[in-house]
């Protein structure tokens, strides 16, 4: 199944909904960053939530999610231009913890809960909008729910999950978001709470072959799909952009690189692509 996202509404329950399958793009990220299982789960959950959050943005509106809970994984950073393409990384990819009682991947332990979740929306204005909330659990889904409530005053259910094989390959990744509309009633809230209480993990449903639409249909009887969007892990880095970055360090620093190292290599954090610069190329930059 290809990766894609759906956006819709449940008219009878007064809520808007999002659901996505991000299995393939999470596997691409795993390969590019050599992620261990818990790091894969943390990054996959973050990318799913980020893509669904961005589905309501205007075209080419850039959104960046920055999570750092003080745990061993360090910073998690994901960015998208609301076009279905996302790039992301974790500071420490070689992280793997499981909970002793369940054996499940311990994302909360890897991420930690002594930091913040920050959302930066660049809408092309003078200053971007920045919303920051303290992390609640580090499990990602709970933290996005808290962000929606505190920063956007929108009660939301956020369910994201990643299923990793014993070979470290990604078996399933995705999620759904349910957001109450202003007309939602107490009965609507009770209905959603009852449905979600013992709901099958979203990664399990995706692994069983359920589509994003079918997952939403397990919760609501009247889902109306308003939009579809294909999803990809894709980085927009290039050697030209790396040249621009190099030029910001100044002529003296570039000359020092030539004298001491006779060239340099720059690695993109988002996709791990390596760019080589020879002495001649560095001299051209100085000119």
What labels would you give this structure?
five-stranded antiparallel beta sheet; alpha+beta; six-stranded mixed beta sheet; 34% helix; single chain; 287 residues
Radius of gyration: 21 Å
Number of strands: 13
Any low-confidence stretches, pLDDT <50, length ≥5? none
Figure out the total of helices. Answer: 10
Assign a percent range to the helix content: 25-40%
**Percent of residues in β-strands:** 25-35%
Spell the H/E element sequence. EEHHEEEHEEHEEHHHEEHHEEH
Summed up, what is this model?
The protein has 287 residues and is of the alpha+beta class. It contains ten helices and 13 strands.
Describe this structure in words.
The protein is of the alpha+beta class. It contains ten helices and 13 strands. The chain has helices at residues 23-33, 37-54, 107-111, 141-151, 186-197, 202-207, 212-217, 239-247, 251-261, 279-286, and strands at 4-10, 15-21, 62-68, 76-80, 85-90, 116-122, 129-134, 156-164, 170-180, 224-230, 232-233, 263-267, 274-278. A hairpin with a 5-residue loop joins strand 8 (156-164) and strand 9.
Produce the secondary structure layout.
Blueprint: E1 4-10, E2 15-21, H1 23-33, H2 37-54, E3 62-68, E4 76-80, E5 85-90, H3 107-111, E6 116-122, E7 129-134, H4 141-151, E8 156-164, E9 170-180, H5 186-197, H6 202-207, H7 212-217, E10 224-230, E11 232-233, H8 239-247, H9 251-261, E12 263-267, E13 274-278, H10 279-286
Parallel strand pairs: 5-11
Antiparallel strand pairs: 1-2, 1-10, 2-9, 3-4, 3-6, 4-5, 6-7, 8-9, 12-13
Helix pairs in contact: 1-2, 9-10
